[in-house]
Design a protein that fits this description.
Two copies of one chain form a homodimer. The first copy, chain A, has 422 residues and is of the alpha/beta class. Chain A is 39% helix and 25% strand. The radius of gyration of chain A is 28 Å and the shape is elongated. The two termini of chain A are 54 Å apart.
Amino acid sequence: MPGHNMRAEIIAVGSELLTPDHCDTNSLLITERLNQAGFAVHLKSVVGDRSDDIAALVRAALRRSDFVVICGGLGPTEDDLTRRAVAGALGRQLSVNAPLLEQLRVLFARRGYPMRPINERQAEVIEGAEVLENAVGTAPGLWLQEGGVQIVLLPGPPRELSPMMENHVLPRALKLGAGRHLVKQSFRVLGMTESEVDSRIAPIYTQYPQVDTTILASRGYIGIRLHQWAGAWEQTGAIEDLACRIERALGSAIFTRTDDSLEEVVGRLLRQSGRTLAVAESCTAGMIGCAITRIPGSSDYFLGGILCYSDDIKERLCGVPGNLLCKHGAVSAEVAEALAEGVRLATGSSTGLSVTGIAGPGGGSPEKPVGLVYVGLADGSRVVNRRRVLPGDRALIRERASYAALAFLYQHIIAARNAGQP
Amino acid sequence: MPGHNMRAEIIAVGSELLTPDHCDTNSLLITERLNQAGFAVHLKSVVGDRSDDIAALVRAALRRSDFVVICGGLGPTEDDLTRRAVAGALGRQLSVNAPLLEQLRVLFARRGYPMRPINERQAEVIEGAEVLENAVGTAPGLWLQEGGVQIVLLPGPPRELSPMMENHVLPRALKLGAGRHLVKQSFRVLGMTESEVDSRIAPIYTQYPQVDTTILASRGYIGIRLHQWAGAWEQTGAIEDLACRIERALGSAIFTRTDDSLEEVVGRLLRQSGRTLAVAESCTAGMIGCAITRIPGSSDYFLGGILCYSDDIKERLCGVPGNLLCKHGAVSAEVAEALAEGVRLATGSSTGLSVTGIAGPGGGSPEKPVGLVYVGLADGSRVVNRRRVLPGDRALIRERASYAALAFLYQHIIAARNAGQP
């Protein structure tokens, strides 16, 4: 069907997904793979562990969708009803598959668990179904066709479902998707507001109506997403053209074209430039250190730092002069700079990065409101700072302050590189 | 209907909720309120901004549910189709409500925004509907009845939806729920595995079949949840009895009965005991400091600390003797203790807490595998440590190491208190 996407729907089975505590997140991963294969998801449902409800949904899905993915409820317990309910909805037999039963016996023996009669239910296969191997768990998947509709049953645990989507469902779905697929490109931008980004690139992207362009403010950066559905025989040059023109318009404000996190990009820049980093964190109290060290191998450039939550530690460990704290207060440009230089000297790193601010809810004043944050940076030749007044509650202000510090460091290294320094 | 829960369903409208990037989370909050009012959610759906799809779902919902909450798609743009689609599904008129239009005009004027013709659509009301005030945004909610089924339309933004559920939907739903409601009690337990908890309390909870008891391993603790559906005229003594007996069986292994976080509980204990805390974090690199300072007012007991990611910082700032690092390695009981005592002395705090470990993916060896973590604690009179081998990937190991450190501190303070020390 050129020019038209096949309609997919996702059914998540599990009573725990109908409580206030649990969300269905499997469908995000399933959607990503289905989109890759040219299927658009038009409906998602969550249903409890009840045969009648599952069967009713499956019957409805057959009338409105080309592709139905059902996940969860393939375990061995009384609560796991998906196989039986789907068989019932299709009017097909459910019977134990001998080779599968044997595989399960081998698997249990290898793991040293006793196989109980109840586990034999996982060897039950719906008449006419193809078995999809589960390399991680004991519940195999099933693939069925009914009146031109594809139906896939997958286990609920994400670590089992994810490789099965990738290895079994995606390759088969790609063949069915008539060659249509979603072409994507994304950018993340620092140092501009959403509307600044929009006013710069709207004159460009409006020339490409065949590409769906979205600008979205995220915490710490602005994301730009380009989407284009295309058949195998269609030109996808439009999205590449558009991406190239956006890159030229925004330059180094774009910190990644591959959805890398800011800490990943900054880490790469530190490594390339042979710098080492230490942090002095007051209001963020570890959030920046924690983010930087998410990246494996960050010990190559990150030395550590000081959590200078109290003024005494600012003085004692970061060497901020007591009179500076008295005169300007802990949340000031002067103290931010002193902290950055202080932690650089205390740790022997080439770069020191600091944050001091008022995260709230208390502690604000008319001159220094909640959300006021100073970021400091010392690189051995100079010490600089940046002032921000960040919106949000305590958690958001701290998160934004961390991003503001990493952004400041990113821009500093890029500017040095552009100026021909390391 | 005594002994029977009324069936509710939730429909979330929005094409962005059908992408790989966005999950419906409004339904969690809606479910919580509906449960409070005696409605069990039996189905949730997510549908795109398409009139036909929305209308089809609404018609199906009328056949299977007593209560239908539809959220999203009440905005002013072309994409916002919920009002129109629901009116169509019910065969009712949609017309501009004069008082509501006037309210909108006032609201726009007060905010200083121009009111465009498109905004007038938000004053459209479905025939027979009651208008639910939106105190935060411009899209009012609507409440309808059709053949004994209650239908509620709410705006999608959580900050608008949340107070409307609380102030408008919950009070009305409570009246309809025939007095049935969900009684809950939860506990969080430290220092035991899921199966240890189960073997201790199974002999108790199996005596209360009317209460639904769930034990769930969470990151850093084991959660126990008790649920009981009850009518106004029914005894809920069972859940109270059971809760009381579980408390006696588990004692101080329970760190909260009110879903407080571990950092909140530890903070309260530090404050009560007049202690101050500093941390020395190696593999967690700020995660513990960040968690403790999530709590407003934590500066009363948290001084700060040292991110001793490199060995040089362990020596230089935490005073760990170089020969200790050489002899035992950075990940050792000896270094964990030296870090805890070192950070205590360097910061002048009464308690020092440290973590050193191998978060992976690299750096492991047969003697010291990835996941090996030592936690150290110094309180001025003694220095102790605890060894753990934590499962999971880098992110999980770091998170679990942070919880292990906070758990160690919690247990230390509780033990001191039980021994009659401050």
